[in-house]
Amino acid sequence: MRDWTARWIGNPAWERAVAAGRPGAAALPVFAAEFVLDRPVRSAVLRLTALGVYAATANGQPVSAAVLEPPNTDYRTRLGYATYDITGLLRPGSNALSVEVGPGLAHVPPTPGRYQKLVRSDGPPRLLAQLEIGYADGTAETVATGASWRTALGRTTFSSWYGGEDHDARRVAEGWAPAADLGPASGGPRLAPRCSPAVEPVETLSAQAVTEPRPGVHVFDFGVNFAGWQQLAVSGPAGTTVTMRPGELLAADGTVIQDLDGTGAPIWDTYTLAGGGPETWHPRFRYHGMRYLQVEGLPGDPAGDTVSGIVLRAANEKVGSFSCSSGLLTTVHTIIDRAIQSNMYSVLTDCPHREKLGWLEQTHLVFGPVAFGYDVADYYRDLVRVMAEAQTEDGLVPGVAPEYAVFSGGFRDDPNWGGAIVLAPWALYREYGDIETAREHYPAMVRYLGYLARRAEGNLLGHGLGDWAAIDERTPVAITASFGYHQAAAAMTRIAALTGRPGDAAHWAELTDKIGAAFNAAYFRPAEGTYGVGSQACDALALDLGVVPAADRQRVVDHLVADIKARGNHLTVGEIPLPSVLRVLAAAGRHDVIWDVVTEVTYPGYGYLAESGATALPEYWDGPDGHGSQNHFMLGAVDAWLTGCLAGLGQGAESVAYRDLVIRPVVVGNLTEVTAQTRTVRGVVRSHWHAADDTFQLDVTIPAGPAAVVCVPLRTPRTHISAPAAAQPAGTADGYANYRVGPGDWSFRSTG
User: Fold this and answer.
1) How far apart are CA 708 and CA 703, in angstroms?
2) Catalytic residue among 15, 69, 355, 403
3) Which of 69, 165, 248, 619 is catalytic?
4) Is 611 one of the annotated active-site residues of the chain?
5) Which of 11, 180, 183, 608 is least enclosed by beta carbons within 10 angstroms?
6) pTM of the complete model
7) Three-state secondary structure of 379-415
8) CB count, 10 Å around CB of 508?
9) Any catalytic annotation for residue 132?
């Protein structure tokens, strides 16, 4: 690949408008170049990026399935570029490249009357492109952005990452003029190739129902809450304008609700018809989160295909699945997966309709469900790079990366958010065996732990958001903050050792011990067998840290369980202690308690959310009756219990990249069947079990690599197990008969 010879170009009208403090020009800029191919072409490779969001075509055809490019980065310092093989799109003779560029998150000016989460600008839409053509005769040619490119204003008359998009199909790009030459590629932000999957369309949804709550106002129900685009198919007179308003919920009168918590409204798109026949349109420079689409101004009655939904997400390969005999639990898994998909864009976002920002705590709190469902090895490496680039000079890792908006207080500075700079690379190592990401970003981790140490008093922290989204709000902020501090220090101990820094490892181990000792001294209440204010969060976090004295551990577990039972099998925690509650109960063998919690259908809980009709996981426990997003994966940690405990797919406590694969299913409640599989770095691992009366059948698939341990439940003292002759007995423990098995398919059957 040749060096960049392309130059940055812009549209003069946009350059003048933004320089003068105006939002922009009358429509989005289009950039174009024509070239002639006079001999056979061997290859044609296009490198492309933009300040903003681009949609590129070669001879009228999209250059790729990728959309909403380039990815979200700190555009001031780094821009990602993509490389496309467009050999098949070119033809002998005249050819044309065309690129329309929207502002995206690079330019978010005030938009009076339309919703916006934030206001920022790194500059107007700009383009950098370089097409390298290799001819069959061995010669080469480059078509690169510069003075030879032309520009005009296109048909998209408005686009805001938050407020919507307007398109006037009657417009014709006129007034073509030379593009503004803005200097060499080296004069802008650092250019880096895209190293993880781009956002692409992955599914098309049909409207499941259409209503008309008011004359001329039609509401299309896609049946599921998703993130992406609506596609309009319409015919009518030129100049007819169709207005589309996305939403997650409906008002009592059947119209779309957008404004549940003071943000996220009003948002709308418009399409003005060219006339003369069927027309199809969808937004191209932003996306929506929605289940419903309210459409106003249709030129006739809607048909079944008037509106469809295009589901978008980062094209990380789907590798996992789960189902079971409980329809409720299968629904819980499904809505968590839908929320993960809907927030898996170029960074992991919090919600697709309102904020669209890369809040960091979810990257590690819900890593298990994300990695079980999708191959995110490359994706997470990019996420960690974005986190490191957001780090401030004093070591702070802000709660959002890229930091497109500088928030205040705990929204910018919480150890459970910033700690992702340590915990996400650690999770990458455990899941995929990737230590290089941790090695590369170790200096950033050191700076962050140094920042926390300077904020600590007596080895404890007292700042942050606390137990975000909790029902019981009594848990002190200092407990959740110090938990995050301890987690980061403990992970640093392991990372330092693995990267050949024994002195550092000893330092971090000492710090971890000091934080744990200070935590116990400040919050342990030995007389009551609890921590802090006695909340579920306090107990679970202490247990998960491993700082509870061995002699008191069961008492603290009992206190936690008693509180859950006293509240009618309901949790009162928010997102930070939620994974801890599930882990410590599972470690204590109290899967019965987790079962009761998850299957309870009254508020608050997963069963309540599933029974309330949620089609993606809501932001808060109150779901559709509350005020938050209806498509937010931060409470999705329970999916790790479904796949790791009920299906039993996991690895040993010290295992890395599933080197020590363990299949240990939990039979609990009235479950009779569970099926799950995922693709690890070793290959596909699968578990399926079925229980009926006094028989139990377990079928597993073990990928290539070292032997695995399969644990068959001993359901009664009389249980007899029929195992394959090649399965090596490995003893019994904790109600399981254990077998060592090699790669392949294995079946175990028990009776009694």
Assistant:
1) 9
2) 355
3) 619
4) no
5) 183
6) 0.97
7) HHHHHHHHHHHHCCCCCCCCCECCCCCCCCHHHCCCH
8) 25
9) no
